[in-house]
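Reviewer 2 asked us to include a model.

Predict the structure of this chain.
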Amino acid sequence: MSRFVTNSFQLCVAQLKISSQTLVSRKSPCIQCIRCYRPRKPFWLPMAKSKMFRIPKKPNIPVEEDVELSRLYNVWRTNIKSIQHHFKEQLRAQTTGIEVIEERRQRALEHHANCVRENELWNAEVAKLREERQAREAAIREKEIQAALAEHEREQKILMEQIDASIRREKEAAKSYITPENIDEAIENALSNVMDHNFCIDLEGNIFKGRYGKPPPSPSDMKPSLSQPSTERQDAQAKEASN
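Predicted model (C-alpha cells):
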C-alpha cells in the first residue's frame, strides 16, 4: 500500500510539473469561450406544473462499477492528501528550518541596517533644513532686537527731554517759592495785597464779588455826569474843530 501511495504521489507531482511547464511556456492567455447562453428560470419562481408530480428515476449502478468508483475515489483522496502533506512539510521546512531562520535573521539585520542608514540620511537632511531655518529666524530676531533697541533709545531720549524741560520749569518756578530768607517779605506782601476769592450770584444772575461786595451798577442806573461830555458831544466838537 505504501508503494502504491508513493507511486501515486510521484505521478501527481509529475503531472503538476507538466501542467506548470505548459502554463509557463504559453505566452498567450488561456481563454475559454462560451458558445451559447441558456437563460434559466429565476430561483424565486415556483416549480412548474408539468414537473410538480414527477418522480426522478433512481440510477441503477452495478456492483462492479460501484466498487470501481469507490476505488478510484480512494485513490484520488489518497493522492490529494499526499500532495497536501507534501506542501505542509515544505511550508514547515521553509518556516521552521535552521537555515531559513538564519536567513530570515540576516535579512532582518540587513533591513534594520538599511533603515538606520536611511534614518541617518533623513536626520542629516532635516538637520540641514533646521539649521537654515534657525539662521533665518536668528537674522529676523536680530533685526527685531535692533529695532526694539532703537525704539527704546528714542523713547528714552524723548523722556529725558521731557524731564529736562520739567526741571527747567521747576527751576523757573522755584524763583517765586517762599524760602526762609524771603518769608518776611512774602508775609508783608500778602498782608498789603489781600485777595478775596469769595463771590455769590443772586436769582437775577448778578455777581457779588468779595465777602462784603456789592453788585455792579446796571447800565440803566448809570447817568451821564455834567462835568464829562458824552461821546456824541465829543465827536461833534472834534468835527467842528477839524473844520
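Residues 66-96 form one domain. The radius of gyration is 64 Å. We have added this to the supplementary material.
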